[in-house]
Amino acid sequence: MADLTGQWLGQYKLGQRIGQGGMAAVYRARQETMDRDVAIKVMSAELAQNEEFVARFEREARVIARLQHPHILPVIDFGRAGNLVYLVMRLVEGGTLSARLQTTTLSLQQTNQFLQQIGSALEYAHQRGVVHRDLKPNNVLLDEMDNIYLTDFGIAKMLAGTSTHSLTATGSVMGTPAYMAPEQWRSEAVDARTDIYALGIILYEMLLGALPFQADTPFAMMYKHFDSPPPTPRLINPDLPDQIEGVLLRALAKVPEERYASAKQFADDFNRVIVSMPSEAVIHPLPRATPDQIARATPARQTAPAAEATVTRQAVAAPPIITSPPPPAAPTRLAGPPPTPSLVRSLWFWGLIGVVLIAVVAIGILALSSGDDDHPPAPSQTI
């Protein structure tokens, strides 16, 4: 996308570009009428020319604007200017959780604080029928006091059905590969448990400093989310309590019914473990897992029934193969006793009589036909 710094979108003057993605850019902007700085997410011109996207954008923007929660980034306004559509949000300048995790590791106390705030925001949204669909550390903003703000609610739903070159932005398969639940990859219906799976991936990162699943391509990542159990946390860091591992692995269950039913339940279970631990055990930064530790802690791949695995892969990776039905089986002869000698002689006698009769009939037909040689044959009909 071209840099729009210095341009006006309605009453907002765009300043420095502070974020850039494939489908949008985020600018610091000035709202002169309110004498304040805001953040503006400008969608790509390609999307803005798609009337279906614009209609969905306006509908979802109104839904997001109604979400009023201390840990959800407020949407102040939205609009359309020329060939651009945009969202106006509160400006938060503490960076993202993604940037924080790349530069440092968290303590159990900090991890719990962040999980409680994210869980509270998700619970609020889920109770109002809003599923995030693209929860990841880059959509978790921090202010100067380390308070969490979830952003980009509804963006994935806005983009669903638009034509792009990305595997994960086709049809209803929307999200970021490292954080997508198995049901998202299959384009199945999503609900609160889909966000809980993504939050489980984020918690894994906060605890161990690494993603549980890593792959070179989106398709390889997809099959890891389908089939591979996450590397066992306590094999990487034996100091983690068993209960923390249990909470984490439940959130990462492949089947939605086996996950937590709500974000609040997930966060509450984790909090109970942390508050029961000695204070000196929760204030120190956790060690960051190395690639070798991740590899050694990865359990053997789960074995699924062959038929189920085949259907799953055909439904996502390729159209089903239609095979011709097998040819009908030859009729089976029933075994019986061998023929007797008298039966054999009888068969020979009647067979000889049949041959003689056929010969007599053939001679008679030949004699009759010889008398018609002077008559030309009737013309044949063309069909």
Indicate the structural class.
Answer: alpha+beta
Task: Give the overall shape, derived from the CA principal axes.
Answer: globular
CATH superfamily of the largest domain: Transferase(Phosphotransferase) domain 1
Average pLDDT confidence is 82
Helical stretch count?
14
Helix content: 40-55%
Low-pLDDT residue spans = 163-173, 303-338, 340-346, 360-383
Question: Main β-sheet, in a few words?
Answer: 6 strands, antiparallel
Which architecture of the largest domain per CATH?
Orthogonal Bundle
Query: What fold name goes in the CATH topology slot of the largest domain?
Result: Transferase(Phosphotransferase), domain 1
Biggest sheet strand line-up: 1-2-3-4-6-5
Please count the beta strands (DSSP E, at least 2 residues each). Answer: 10
CATH class of the largest domain: Mainly Alpha
For the termini, the CA-CA separation is 68 Å
**Count of domain modules:** 2
Secondary-structure element series: EEEEHHEEHHEEHEEHHHHHHHHH
Q: Which radius of gyration do the C-alpha atoms yield?
A: 36 Å
Strand content: 5-15%
